[in-house]
Input
Amino acid sequence: MIKLSKRLQTIADYITPSNRVADIGSDHALLPVYLLQSGKCPSAIAGELNLGPMLAAKKQAADAGLSDRLEVRQGDGLAVLAPDEADTVTIAGMGGSLMSDILEAGYTSGKLEGVKELVLQPNVGEDAVRIWLLNRGWLLKDETILEEDGKIYEVIHAVLSDDAEKQNEVIYDGSFLQLDLEKPTLTALLIRMGPYLLRRPHEALVKKWRSELQKLEWICKQLSGSELPESAVKRDQFQAEMKLIEGVLNCLQTDKR
Ligand code: SAM
Output
């Protein structure tokens, strides 16, 4: 059986057993092959935009003797799906902004019909994904942050639920942070940093945001060298952002999981 990376295994572990899965942007189709080999899922679709990765996915399916249960399709995002063809959609290894564009296009064209579960691993721009989920009424069920080969990844699990709006309100309530900030500012921080990740802080989370702070500090230094008034405005904005992030980090209790 295929051995997945820690990142792909985290995604696999979130998928509800027996669900039919569509993995969008599947490249070598490692995740769907694992899901079929392990018996976790009965069938899968691997969607790929580009020819090279699509052929690699086809070869992986054929080599594993799974071509009858793993359909590899070439196309843009969720366009490869027919309504009610998948219970779970996974999208991993691309930016959060592209991911939310793919989800929105899928939503407006009805391709998400029948899909009950999303497992998403944006490489950057996780906030864009959380905002899309909130706007389209998905319940944020859980999140994981992990470090592998020097990189930090976030995995987001969302499901359909009748009371998603009510539950999300509780999930995105930042009062647990005990920071003296307005509610919308706290919610924006939770959207950016992950409401579950902040409630169960892992050392990878602190590492990620300490590194973000370093980048912002460097930008502020560059801006200080400019005499343009816009640069001063930008620097003030970045400094305010840094103060918020530092405030959050200071009130987190981390353990070494
Ligand atoms: N999902 C795999 C993983 O996480 O290991 C592969 C990630 S790879 C970095 C991203 C893949 O998404 C590439 O193979 C790329 O061709 C594909 N891709 C990019 N935009 C896409 C789109 N709009 N629709 C489908 N696939 C897309």
Notes: The longest strand covers residues 139-148. The two ends are 27 Å apart (CA to CA). Strands lie at 21-24, 44-48, 70-74, 88-94, 117-122, 139-148, 151-159.
